[in-house]
Design brief:
It is a single chain. This protein is an alpha/beta fold. The protein contains 10 helices and 11 strands. It has 3 domains: 3-83, Arc Repressor Mutant, subunit A, CATH 1.10.10.10; 91-164 and 265-291, Periplasmic binding protein-like II (D-Maltodextrin-Binding Protein, domain 2, 3-Layer(aba) Sandwich); 165-264, Periplasmic binding protein-like II (D-Maltodextrin-Binding Protein, domain 2, 3-Layer(aba) Sandwich). Strands 3, 4, 5, 6, 9, 10 and 11 form a 7-stranded mixed beta sheet that branches. A two-stranded antiparallel sheet has the order 1-2. α8 (201-212) links the parallel β7 and β8 (218-222). The longest helix is centred in the N-terminal third of the chain and has 25 residues, at 59-83. The termini are far apart.
Length: 298
Amino acid sequence: MDLRRLQILSTLEAEGTMTAVAEVMFMTTSAVSQQLSILEKEAGVRLFVRAGRRVQLTEAGLVLVRHAKQIASAAEAAQTSMRRFRTDVAGVVALSAFPSFASTILPKALTALSLSFPELRVTVSDMEPFQSMAELRAGRIDLAVIDDLHPVPTEEMVTTVLYEDELVLCLPPDYDDLPQGPVNLSLFSSTAWIMDVRQSVFEIHVRKLCRAAGFEPRIVANCSNLAVVLAMVEAGLGVTILSRRHTLSKAFKFVARSLDPLQSRKVMLAYRASAQDSPLVGAVAAELKEKSLPIYIR
């Protein structure tokens, strides 16, 4: 059986429709249908049935998906073993990361990698941690930078902590009605808040912090663009919580204060256990760890 067709079937189990599979795998819907029909002929049994607009896998289809995951893992392990006989680091590695990492640490790591390994090409996708882990499990990316704000399954994965990331409160530059030292969020119960995209993992986490401090935040803006968020804070339109690393920006004027109690998250790197001996994955992982060393002193 063809590995590509098995991957299509595994993606169908996850996505539920052929249209969604086509979008994820950059195929046409008719091509997806054709490949699945060939796979059914190879298997000799029905692998899926239509249920309205969605497609459900039969018991045989689910069993084949389990085997497909084992086959994909074994194939990757075989590729990794063969790469160990090579002395060069050459090829393509797909990486995902969330915005605060992708905009601060990642560019420096990619620059260093391009100088050390000219034949290595790293492709990057900006994703939420739960999206990254889904793509990693599906074999569509090789490494994922995630955090621990939202629990994600890590079975059959290797994870390593890159750094502890402090979360800080960002205030307008003329905000001077505060005591010295870390501040408690309860002081900002009546303040306007600027948040990340609605229902993102980070926005949900900040909402929880505010509720733990005894209030529901009055949100005046939800923005995905960091520059927009900081411009609004600078203009006095509200306060926000960001990664400490984002406060290194000199493009905007604002005040960053630690929180009481201290708030932080662990930033981690994840990759499949079957790829842990890959020279490509190892080279990228080592550089990300190197560039994740502390770049500020609290």
